[in-house]
Amino acid sequence: MELFMGKKTVENYTIVIGCGRLGVTLANTLSDKGGNVTIIDKNNDAFRKLSPSFGGLSLTGDATDLDVLQEAQISKASVVVAVTDNDNINIMAAQIARELFKIQRVIARLYDPDRECVYREFGIDTICPAVLSAREINKLLSENSIAKDSPLREKQ
Ligand code: AMP
Asked: What is the distance, to the nearest Å, from the Cα of residue 71 to the centroid of all Cα atoms in its chain?
């Protein structure tokens, strides 16, 4: 990793908060693509899910703790992604990244779709699994209905 250089923002440096199912997949993918990645989780065991080829750093601690974020050199990050299993933690970490450390790109996972629009106002991009899943299911359903009506469909 080319992390610890003097310049302010390190190009392609992403901090992933939460090493759960989503966080680990994201961190492995970014690392495989050659990005600089630090992944934070409060539970040390969570890092066992990282792939053996993961080339980033892992940091144990609460992601709303300023000391932990500073240890991760958050001020040098170009992107912060908050994907713990707790909306409040994701929101708090995202707001710290955006407001205190002026990180350009901040993305938070929110389970509660009703809170999505609020955080857009703060310049925080949000992803909501329920909304994304509903969109994909609707897409599959409409593809199925097209397939059903298609003249190419075999007559039964
Ligand atoms: P998952 O439910 O698979 O998406 O996993 C969520 C991950 O977020 C777990 O590994 C938790 O240990 C982690 N997590 C939850 N709260 C915090 C927190 N405050 N700081 C860092 N990681 C957290």
From this structure: 19
Alpha carbon distance 143, 72 (integer Å)? 44
Tell me what percent of the residues of the chain surpass a pLDDT of 90.
76
Distance (Å, whole) CA 30 – CA 48: 17
Q: Is 21 helix (H, G, I), strand (E, B) or coil?
A: helix
Nearest CA to ligand 1 atom 2: 85
Tell the residue number behind the tokens 């933690």, with chain if given. 89
What atom in ligand 1 is closest to the CA of residue 21?
3
Residues with CB under 6 A from ligand 1: 17-22, 40-43, 46, 62-64, 84-86, 89
Residues of the chain below pLDDT 50 = 2-7
Mutate to test the pocket of ligand 1, among 15, 16, 41, 92 (most ligand atoms within 8 A of CB): 41
